[in-house]
Amino acid sequence: MVVSTVATGDRTIGVPAEGRVDPFGDPFLRTRFAVPSRPATFLPRRRLTRHLGQALRTPLTMVNGSAGAGKTLLVADWIATLDRPVTWLTVEAEEQRPGMFWAYFLQALDASGTPLSDRVHVPADPSRVSRKVLSEIAEDLVGRDPAPLVVLDEFDRVSASRIAEQLEFVLQHAGSGLRLVLVTRNEPMFSLHRHRAAGALTEIRDAELAFTPEEAAALLELHGLSLPGDAVHALVERTRGWAAGLRLCALAAQESPDPQAYLKEFEADRSTVADFLLAEVLRRQPRETQDLLLRVSVLDRFCPDLVNGLTHRTDAGRILAELHRDNAFVEQLGQGWYRLHPLFGEILQTHLRVRSPGLEADLHRSAAQWLRRRGTLPEALAHGAAADDWDFTAGALVDDLAIGQFFTGLRSDELNELFSRMGPEAVGPAPELVRAARDLAQSDLDRGMAHLHHAEAGLAGEAGDPAAAQLSWALLEAVAARLTGSPARAEQAAETADEVRPEIPAHLLDKHPELPALLLTHLGSTRLWAGRYEDARAALTEAAECPGGAQTVLPREESMGHLALIDYLNGWPGRAEHKALAAMTETERFSLPQPSGTGIERLVLAAVAVDRNELGRAQSLIDEADELALEIQDPVQAAGRALAAARLQLARGNTRAAVASATPAVSTAVASPWAEGLERVVASAVHLAEGRTGTAAELLRQLPDDRPAWVVEAARLRLAAGETDAALDLLDSLPAESRPGPAVTVRAALVRAQAAAQRGDTETARRLVAQALLGARRERLRRPFIDAGRWIRPYLAAAPVRPLAAGWLVPAAAPPSTAGPAGSRPAVAGPPPAPVVVQELSEREHDVLRGLAQMMSTQEIAADLYLSVNTVKTHLKSLYRKLAVNRRSEAVRRARDLRLL
Amino acid sequence: MRYEIRVDGHMSDTLAEAFPELERVVMSGQTVLFGSVIDEAHLFGLLARCQSLGLHVVEMRRMPE
């Protein structure tokens, strides 16, 4: 896809590293960067820490063992002996969210005081990360001394995913600049054999992690148990040296009146080790501790206050501290947060279900309520959904003003997934708003509007403070207005939003910049559809300038795309192209999922390409836009597609196809004047081409829109239909203050030129053709000259005008030998899509061009070529001149077309 | 698909609740979990569940229909 490579050539991709936030805009969970602390009964094992010491010399280290084998604490113990910063990251189940993983990876490096440089961009989309960002990370690590040591704990949670592959890519390209330690329960999807063969892997596996009888004896000592050698042997045999098993043994034996007898009993028992021991140890805990352990099993991590909320007691702080001290069940994450040992979490949850069926939902509900007050919204939503409490969950989303996230492409998949479990029994405004948002986001208008209607009715009867719900409703109403092309509805929604906004706490509005940005975009889009260009421009400009990084990138992109369309309709293809490319660059900067916008900017680019007679490019842009907009039913998008496709078909001479494409396939509340204007002009052009002059002229008598673009088009067609005076009157009727762009003025000049040529006024015609060429040259507007027809050929070939057309419209200065009859043949019938290079590039210009193609900045090129920045700029200028372009992205594209690269 | 998963040790009734979709029979120091498995994803899910419960999988095999 040439467009995007070029579009990114000018600017850097991604978000600057400073001011990092989690891609969802939530604060990073600092507990994930904390090295778990070792309890007092932890037994340091020198043979293992010595082996781990080799990790400093190999790029990859893997501590791979079953649950409860003591992996995490072993690595934590080793780290404590090191005299250097270590980066710790506890991996979460981010199978589907590589962007989130890498954001945390970078933040973890930051938190450990070994940050990467600001040049490295942070992935803004939780669900993906671009190769470029990975390369940046790897490049930044190359040559670091000492190499950052990164521990990824619980790596099994992602080991089979794309993340493993990405991690290996970074490791491979970071040279010796990264030391990676994976703590995992299962084999990661790395090419371990290769690392092994190269001696680049330090590996500690289950067999090595298993306790030796000596170590087991020492561990039991720590618990105050002294056993004869053969008893320890038997115990190690029974537990296979499994750390968790031994620890539970010790705990259970401690509590029993005759520890030795108890351990004998355990040896003889044939139950599964963890199951038996856990039940034993749990049974020996005080009742309130048992209760606490069962209840917290529904949580990933917890702090005393949250646990008090679940147990309806006040002593969680003390109990958790004791449990941690005894090394039973809980691990400390720092900052007052704990988690259950992953092994026991599962078993405890099973016990909870057996002992207190039905309690699980209540616990999730209490957790959700606590997290709603003190934690992050996603956690609250997850527990609310687990409790099947949809009034609460939908209410939390709406009250947090987060409903716009269904439309920003960032969290929409996750929210959709979460709320897909919501059954029809949940009623009330909030669930209805959520249903409406889901349906509208998937362009299911009928269902969406029905839910929206229910929500509105519910809100009217609502007491209390429904401002957030009102604002959410206004946003969805604006979406519906846009999709149905009803400006009155959109204005009404915007008014409602303005009314309720002052009632909403400022921190909520600050947290959700996407909401106003989306609202303005929909308002602007609806206004544009209705032909209210200046009002549309006002709303869209405001939307395009909204702050908010990744959260608002989609509405900003869309607004830019719409603004590009307005420029195009005003006859400014250059400006339109610039805005459309900027819109696409913006989306790529944040590496958003591609099918998130409507693709309007691609359609504008396609229309611009038709004006330049780059028909192949126009076609591929339309195809790309179609792929993006498969599910979308958006009036402006449909009309934009009609515009680009109909013009392309006309340019190719497919009149039937042009008529078929000119009608946007949407049904709307009001008609769009510009969409109709286009339809009219295309139909008229087709009638004319097929010889029905009268019908063609008739169609143009009443234009639905007084856009200069259509007026000039109409004038051209009427001139071609033989109505010269009517054509000139039309042009004269254009208000002087409308100031249309070159695409309009060039065509107007050509109509006048043709009229003059018909009168026999060659001098005026030539002057007007020259004027048109001057206006068109910079924008490379070839289409108007091709559409003009045969009469223009002699003018383009004539001496005083020819230089203006040479190089971009007709072949450049032909060699003298062909200057005869062949040289006078103008290329208008089918000019080459790319112009001929006027002048050979110098060697230095070639070097600079290659730098451009590698997306290097001017400074980087200067450094690379040992030139001053100013010299590079001089080369750039002459390069642009020779390639007849204005920007570096165009230069690269043109150079590729001409096979200079 | 029907599978049986053989794990070391006798599983308690409580722990067996972690596999509500499977039947269970205890024999000679081992527990055999068996029943129909929906697809590969389910199968790997069962294995992961064994792992997170600290069970030793001794054998796993597909049974004739």
Explain this structure:
The complex is a heterodimer of chains A (901) and B (65). With 901 residues, chain A is mainly alpha-helical. Chain A contains 47 helices and seven strands. In chain A, strands 2-3-4-1-5 form a five-stranded parallel beta sheet, sandwiched between helices. Chain A is elongated, with a radius of gyration of 35 Å. The N terminus of chain A is likely disordered. Chain B has a single domain, classed as 2-Layer Sandwich (Alpha-Beta Plaits), CATH 3.30.70. Chain B has two helices and four strands. A four-stranded antiparallel beta sheet of chain B has the order 2-3-1-4, with helices on one face. In chain B, a hairpin with a 2-residue loop joins strand 2 and strand 3. The longest helix of chain B has 13 residues. The radius of gyration of chain B is 11 Å and the shape is globular. Chain B starts with a strand and ends with a strand. The mean pLDDT of chain B is 89. The interface between A and B is medium-sized, with 26 and 20 residues.
Number of helices of chain A: 47
| Beta-strand fraction estimate of chain A | under 5%
Q: How much is the average pLDDT of chain B?
A: 89
Query: Number of domains in the coordinates of chain A?
Result: 7
- Any idea how many domains of chain B? 1
Largest sheet of chain A: 5 strands, parallel
Q: What is the fold named in CATH at topology level of the largest domain in chain A?
A: Rossmann fold
The number of E-state strands of chain A comes to 7
CATH class of the largest domain in chain A: Alpha Beta
